[in-house]
Amino acid sequence: MSHLEVTDLAVSFGRQQRPALRGISFTLGERERLGIIGQSGSGKSVTALAVMGLLPVHARVTGSIRLAGRELVGLPEREMRRLRGDEVSMIFQEPMTALDPTMKVGRQVGEVVALHHVERRGSIHDEVLVWLGRVGISDPARIADSYPHELSGGQRQRVLIAMALANRPGLVLCDEPTTALDVLVQRQILQLLADELADRAAVFVSHDLAVVRQVCRRVAVMLDGEIVEQGEIDEIIAAPRHPYTQGLIASARIDQVPPGHLLPSVADFYPGTRS
Ligand SMILES: Nc1ncnc2c1ncn2[C@@H]1O[C@H](COP(=O)(O)OP(=O)(O)OP(=O)(O)O)[C@@H](O)[C@H]1O
C-alpha cells in the first residue's frame, strides 16, 4: 500500500476562475522520495501545503489525500494538528521566518520534542542536544543557547530539519529547503537530507531538477497547476515526453554532466524563476 496517495487533487482560492491546482495525482511508498519540480507559480508549494493541511481557510480543496490509508481532505483542524509533527512534517525554504526570532533555539526544538510525546526517557534538553548533533551541529549546547539570528543560514536550516524529524514522522515535505543557501552549504544540507530521509517517505519540492536528482529517484513535473509528466528521473532525462520537460532538460544539459559534477541550476535558464 502507498504511504501517501494523492488522487485528483484540485485547489482554488477565492473567486479565482482557474483552480491553482487541477487533477494532481501521485503516490509515494513508505521509503520513497518524490521530487516535484516546476517554475515559480506552477503549484508546487500549494501541493505540499495541501498535504500538510496548511492552506488558508478560504482555499477550496477537492479530491483525495490519503496518508497511511487515512483521508486528510476534510479532516477537522484539531485532528490534522495531531498528525502534524507526528506523522507528517515540513521543512520550509526560509528558516529565518520559520523560527521564532525571540526564542532560543534549544527551547524551540524542545517544544517540538515535548509537544507530541509526554513521556520520554531522559530530559527534553538532552534530546534536543542529541538532535542538534545528529543534524551536524558541532557545538549543540552553544547553539541551543543561541537565538536564531546568531546562527548562519546553514545552521538555521539544520535546526529546522531537526525540528521536522524530531518526532520521526513517516512523511516529510521539503519545500525548497536549500534554495536560500550558498552552493557549498546547499550540498551539505542535501547530503544530510538524503541520509535522514532514507528511511521514510518524502516529497522534495524544488525549481531545480539537478537538486531533485541528488535526493530523489522519481519526479513529477508541474506546469501551471498540473502534473505534465512523472516517473523515474533518469528515464525522464533520457526521454522526456512533454515539451516543457524537454526544454527543461535541453537547456540544463543535465544528461551531459558527468556524475559528481555540479549541475547548472534550472533558474539559470528560466530568468523568471525565483531562486
Ligand atoms: N493563499 C493564496 N491565495 C491565492 N492564491 C494563491 C495562494 N497561494 C498560492 N496561490 C496561487 O497558487 C498558484 C501556485 O502557487 P505556488 O506557491 O504553489 O507555486 P510554486 O510552484 O510553489 O512557486 P514558487 O517556486 O515561486 O514557490 C500561484 O498562481 C499562486 O498565486
Automatic annotation (TrEMBL):
It is found in: Cell membrane. Pfam families: ABC_tran, oligo_HPY. InterPro entries: AAA+_ATPase, ABC_Ni/Peptide_Import, ABC_transporter-like_ATP-bd, ABC_transporter-like_CS, Oligopep_ABC_C, P-loop_NTPase. Belongs to the ABC transporter superfamily. It comes from Tessaracoccus lapidicaptus. This is ABC transporter ATP-binding protein. The keyword Transport applies. It comes from the Bacteria. One of its GO terms (biological process) is peptide transport. GO terms for cellular component: plasma membrane. Keywords: ATP-binding, Cell membrane, Membrane, Nucleotide-binding, Transport. It is a peripheral membrane protein. GO terms for molecular function: ATP binding; ATP hydrolysis activity. The keyword Nucleotide-binding applies.
